[in-house]
């Protein structure tokens, strides 16, 4: 594959992954914040272990705010959104200026939320902007391969996060079906053996018993990203 095409494909895929990672992470942190109001501490150490990320925080409240807004923390949600924006900027001609503007607004709102007194309320607007971005991309990206490469990013990130965290596992079979459909419309090269394993597990992924195998296959499915 031509290096320029490969670079564009890689960016489209990771744009999808970072957007989806931001959405899932915000959903989880909103729930954790709501539970904290009722004096239920978030088990952030187990959360980090499942994601296999470092944890520099010492309290539940400190982790929630840091994971959301700390730009010095590599794994933070604000950084995931910034990485999505970095890819979107380069892809402006592919995704359209309108789609890019939704990412820009999400970044602006995220920055405002970090400095505000009611961050969770503002985070809902970040979610709204990202869903608007997804809808705009669906309408604005005319090239079928590009559009479905972004969608493969959504699916891979969803499966990865759901398996790691045991989150929304009842929807995994549907997510596998989506990914299988999207694979037919993307030029990305895939590992045939890993794909066969995934398709074999698709009717009943069973993340509790197949966690490591699922993660190995979904993370290694595409050869050029």
Rg measurement, Å:
18 Å
Secondary structure: number of strands? 0
Name the poorly predicted regions.
none
Shape annotation: globular
Distance between the termini: 12 Å
Number of discrete domains: 1
Helical residue percent band: over 70%
Strand content: under 5%
Q: SSE order in H/E notation?
A: HHHHHHHHHHH
- Largest β-sheet summary: none
Number of helices: 11
By secondary-structure content and strand pairing, the structural class works out as mainly alpha
Task: State mean pLDDT (0 to 100 scale).
Answer: 93
Commentary on this structure:
The protein has 225 residues and is mainly α. The protein has one domain (3-219). 75% of the residues lie in helices and 0% in strands. It contains eleven helices and no strands. The protein has helices spanning 3-37, 44-51, 60-69, 77-90, 92-95, 97-115, 119-140, 144-165, 172-183, 192-201, 207-219. Helix 1 packs antiparallel against helix 4. The longest helix is centred in the N-terminal third of the chain and has 35 residues, at 3-37. The radius of gyration is 18 Å and the shape is globular. The two termini are 12 Å apart. The model has no long low-confidence stretch (mean pLDDT 93).
Kindly list the characteristics that best describe this protein.
11 helices; 75% helix; 225 residues; 0% strand; mainly alpha
